[in-house]
Amino acid sequence: MHCKMKYGIIQPTYALTNNSGVMVQCKMWAEGLRKLGHEVLLINFWDKNEWKSFDAIIVVSFSLGLRILIKDLFKNNANLVMAPIIDPSIPAWRYKFYCKWWGNQKYLGLTSRFHDLWLSKDWFKLWLVRSEEERHYTNYCLERSQKIIKKVPLHFRIPPIEEMPLKENFCFHASRLASTNKNVPRLIEAAKKYGFNLKLAGYLHGVLEKNWLETLIGDAENIEYVGEVSEKELWNLYKHAKVFALPSLQEGVGMVALEAAAYGCEIVLTNYGAPKEYYGGRAILVNPMNVDEIGEAIMTAMNRGYAQPELMYYMNENYSEKACCQLLDKYIQEAISLK
Question: Is 100 found in the same domain as 11?
Answer without folding.
Answer: yes
